[in-house]
Design goal:
Elements (H helix, E strand, L loop, with lengths): L4 H9 L15 H10 L24 H14 L2
């Protein structure tokens, strides 16, 4: 996923070397998977009939895993 232009500017102009040192907080992949599992957003169900809101703030940690689960759910119905 490409980093938005504003974030690239901040990353190159800020003295801290990592986003975490600048105060950025990123959802770890295992946390994303756990939250989706706990919410019942599982590929074994018919996800095309479910409603989900992706909390898009930052790098989209939930968007890709949700899309993968949605595709797996759809393919399992073929």
């Amino acid at each position: 996923m490409q980093t938005p232009l504003l974030f690239r500017h901040i990353e190159t102009s800020a003295p801290a070397k990592t986003p975490e040192k600048r105060g950025a907080v990123y959802t770890k992949p295992w946390v994303t998977e756990l939250i989706l599992d706990m919410a019942g957003y599982d590929a074994s169900g018919d996800l095309a009939k479910k409603f989900a809101v992706e909390p898009a703030v930052g790098e989209g940690a939930f968007l890709a895993p949700m899309a993968v689960r949605l595709i797996r759910s759809a393919l399992s119905k073929l």
